[in-house]
Structure formats: C-alpha cells, structure tokens
C-alpha cells in the first residue's frame, strides 16, 4: 500500500513539476519548487485519490514535506478506517 | 459583531465571507447561482481546515460555517448593517444589483464595493445613498492578507468611512486609503503587468512558466504574474483590463487577445482547474 501510495503521490507531483528531481525522503518545501498553495492541492489530491478525510490534527506541513511522509499519512488513515 | 451581507460567492466573496465569520461576525452570503453557494461552503470548510497548515490560526470550521447563512434572494440582506458586493466586474450586472440593493436594504445600510477597477463614485451614483457607499479592494486569499485598499467615493461620509474602517480593523486588515480612480493603485499597475505578461506568451516570446520564472528568480517575487492571473481568475483579469480601457480611453490598456480566448474557452485559472497552468486536482 505504502509503495503504491508513494508512486501515486510522486506521479501527482512530477506531473505538476516535470523538471524537478527529488527522492521520496527529500523535503519538497525546502527544495523551493512548491508553495503553500500547492500544499492545499496535495491535501485535496490525497483525500480524493485515497478516499480518506485527513483529520485536523494530521493537517500540518510536517506530514506533507516528503513523498514518504505523505505515504505514511495515507497508511495511517487507511489503517484507521479498516481498524 | 456586525451583521454583514456578502453578495457574490466567487473567489473574493467566499474569502470575504469566511474571513468575516472567522472574526466573529454573522454573514449572509447571497448568490443567484445555488451551485456557487454550495461550492463556497465547501471551499470555506477546506480553507478553515487548512488554516493552521498554511501558517494561520487554528480555525473551527463548524463554528465558521454556523455563522454563515446562504441563499439566492437579495431579500435576505434586509437586516444587514453592511453589504459587501463582490460580483463579476461587469457594469450592467453591477447597475442592476445596486438598484435592487438600494430597495431591499435598510436606509442606513452601508454598501462596500469590492471592485477591481470600476470607480466608486460611479457605483455610488446608482443608489439613493451615495454618502453610504465606499470602495474596499480586498486581496486574495482574503483571510491571509493583512491589508486592503480603502477607497472613499466623492460623496462618501466620514461616518461611513469610520464604519467600514472599524469593520476592516476587526478583520485584522490595515486599510490603506487611496483616492477614487479606475483600478485604484494596485490594479492600475498589476492588471497591465499581467496583460503584458499574457502578450509575451501570446507572441511566443516566452511560455508562462518562463515568464513567471523571471519574476520569481530575478525579482524575488513569491509568484509570477501569470500564476497570479490564475489565482485571481483569468476572466477577472480580462474584465478589469476592459474596464481600465473603457474608463481611461487609452490604448495602453488594450486587452491581450489570449486573455479573451482563454476566458471564452473557460480557462479561468485555479477556480476552473485550468488557466496558464493546470490544477486538475482541485476539481
């Protein structure tokens, strides 16, 4: 699930920013090519693509800084939904 | 706490309604399109949830939504103390609206025009209360912007200025007074900049991304002019440039044909999912 989530999230970002290279662990905000408006797009994408509603306490930039952190967030939400 | 009417549930009206509700005012949001009202409430909920993440305060989305009443009838504005108008930048639409507002609202209700380029004195002349009409040019996204242009018309009274100033200060906004002229200060400069940036793309001098890159990397601007156009709305940019052209009768305000084509094609920017850039995830 996590790998699949990583792939989907990475595809979403690279479609928007095809010229940028970054690893799954890199801080995409520190790299400077995304801004806070894109953070909102990321939230909307994740909620739509993975059919989840991210709770307020999880809505902070720390969870969206890298592809792997976003995939971890998705995994937490989907396991919470199953459990 | 003020009972405020907000007319127009587009990008600006939605932001104004959210900001007012966040600051403890009661809001009546009116639009003639029920779909726009549904979209506005969805947008406000998302923006409230995202507030802390975007560097703002923690906002209780349920409490904000509970402060906002929505509807399609202007009659809902009958008891409001201030009405903030945010409809499309089109003179015929504004003319019809202000005549109706003048009839349905109390005699002492203050009208605030959140227009991009139409002179406030001209709008005030549509009503029987030109002393109670004032211009405020809010910036987008409204809840995050700390200042706005504050534009009295020729007949605006001191009392009206004070009412509007107090409301703005309650919203945490610094009113910057400027005199009444089409486009005020901000849009006189910004709209021409965006229009010229669109000409660069139209003529093939550079693509949108390159134009914005020059402004970001060379000038240190947080956003380039065409990203800004997508945020404001490509259609709104076009209408504002057209108003400047009409008001000044000066060819330097001629609208770029690309803006016209994009507007006709529905490529209105972030709000439509496509402008100079793609925002398909926003749909």
Automatic annotation (TrEMBL), chain A:
Which residue windows are coiled coil?
Answer: none
Ranges for domain Carrier: 1-78
The record's section on InterPro entries has:
ACP-like_sf (IPR036736), PP-bd_ACP (IPR009081)
Q: Which Pfam families match?
A: PP-binding
The stretch of residues making up the signal peptide is none
Q: What is this protein called?
A: Phosphopantetheine attachment site
From TrEMBL, chain B:
Task: Please report the name of this protein according to its UniProt entry.
Answer: 3-hydroxybutyryl-CoA dehydrogenase
Transmembrane spans: none
> Is the keyword NAD in the record?
yes
Organism field: Lentzea jiangxiensis
Binding residue positions for NAD(+): 8-13, 31, 89, 94, 116, 140, 271
Tell me one Pfam family matched here.
3HCDH_N
- From which residue to which does the signal peptide run? none
Domain 3-hydroxyacyl-CoA dehydrogenase NAD binding, by residue range, is: 3-180
Please name the GO terms that the record assigns under molecular function. Answer: NAD+ binding; oxidoreductase activity, acting on the CH-OH group of donors, NAD or NADP as acceptor
Q: Which UniProt keywords apply?
A: NAD, Oxidoreductase
Q: Determine if Acyltransferase is one of this entry's keywords.
A: no
Q: Would you identify the family this protein belongs to, as annotated? A: Belongs to the 3-hydroxyacyl-CoA dehydrogenase family.
């Amino acid at each position: 699930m996590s790998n699949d989530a990583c792939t989907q999230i990475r595809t979403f970002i690279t479609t928007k920013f095809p010229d940028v290279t970054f690893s799954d662990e890199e801080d995409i905000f520190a790299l400077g090519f995304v801004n806070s408006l894109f953070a909102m797009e990321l939230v909307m994408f994740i909620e739509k693509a993975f059919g989840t509603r991210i709770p307020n306490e999880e809505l902070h930039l720390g969870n969206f800084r890298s592809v792997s952190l976003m995939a971890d967030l998705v995994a937490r939400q989907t396991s919470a939904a199953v459990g | 706490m003020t009972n405020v009417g907000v007319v127009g549930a587009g990008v600006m009206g939605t932001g104004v309604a959210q900001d007012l509700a966040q600051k403890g005012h009661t809001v009546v949001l009116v639009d003639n399109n029920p779909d726009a009202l549904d979209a506005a409430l969805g947008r406000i909920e998302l923006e409230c949830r995202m507030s802390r993440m975007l560097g703002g305060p923690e906002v209780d989305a349920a409490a904000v939504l509970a402060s906002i009443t929505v509807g399609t009838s202007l009659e809902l504005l009958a008891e409001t103390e201030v009405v903030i108008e945010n409809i499309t930048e089109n003179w015929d639409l504004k003319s019809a609206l202000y005549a109706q507002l003048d009839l349905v609202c109390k005699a002492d209700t203050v009208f605030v025009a959140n227009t991009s380029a139409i002179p406030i004195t001209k709008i005030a002349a549509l009503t029987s209360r030109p002393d109670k009409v004032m211009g405020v040019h809010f910036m987008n996204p409204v809840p995050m912007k700390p200042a706005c242009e504050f534009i009295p018309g020729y007949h605006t009274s001191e009392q009206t200025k004070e009412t509007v100033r107090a409301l703005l200060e309650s919203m945490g906004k610094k009113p910057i007074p400027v005199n009444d002229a089409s486009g005020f200060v901000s849009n006189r400069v910004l709209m021409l900049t965006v229009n010229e940036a669109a000409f660069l793309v139209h003529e093939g001098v550079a693509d949108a991304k390159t134009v914005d890159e020059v402004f970001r990397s060379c000038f240190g601007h947080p956003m380039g002019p065409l990203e800004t156009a997508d945020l404001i709305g490509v259609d709104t940019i076009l209408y504002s440039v057209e108003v400047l052209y009409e008001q000044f009768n000066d060819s330097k305000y001629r609208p770029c044909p690309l803006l016209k084509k994009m507007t006709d094609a529905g490529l209105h920017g972030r709000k439509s999912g496509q402008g100079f850039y793609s925002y398909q995830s926003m749909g």
